[in-house]
Amino acid sequence: MKATTKPRKGEMAGMSGKGVMVGGAMMTPDKDIVDNAVGSADHTTLVSAVKAAGLVETLKSAGPFTVFAPTNAAFDKLPAGTVNSLVQPDMKPTLTKVLTYHVIPGRFTAADLKNGQVLTTVEGEQLTVMKSGNSVMLKDAKGGMATVTIPNVISSNGVTHVIDTVLMPAN
Predict the structure, then answer these.
(1) Could you identify which of 35, 39, 75, 104 might form a hypothetical disulfide with 45, taking C-beta atoms 3.0 to 4.6 angstroms apart as the criterion?
(2) Please, which pLDDT band fits residue 133 given cuts at 50, 70 and 90?
(3) CA 145, CA 142: separation in Å to the nearest integer?
(4) Could you give phi then psi for residue 146, rounded to 5 degrees?
């Protein structure tokens, strides 16, 4: 029997019950959004930021939430010093605003997202979905674009979509 690196049908969509590999860790539907994210080597900056903002308990609650989760590389695209500045205690309100701009109330899989759809974030501003085939992009309030690189990471309290750019609210 020949070994294969291709996932079985359904695994990429996170619907198989087995989970999805993200940042070298298996994300499984029996864990909440935070517990899944903590395992990802690609999301250490996001996890640190969520802790600094005091959002861990919120994202461990029943939800459901849809989280657009920027990778470490996405945070690295920000101007030098931005992340270190944002995690300082006096910047907590700004950090919270940026992070909650990545969270949508409800559970939206990639199939639920439609081209041109406007999503209202927990922060209160909007994101616009741009979809072409199976590719999903998000346009933020400042016109920035993020691409979903790993969709449908299913957790017990919602769904996470890994993105390649940090989304920014207007204010």
Answers:
(1) 75
(2) confident
(3) 9
(4) -125, 140
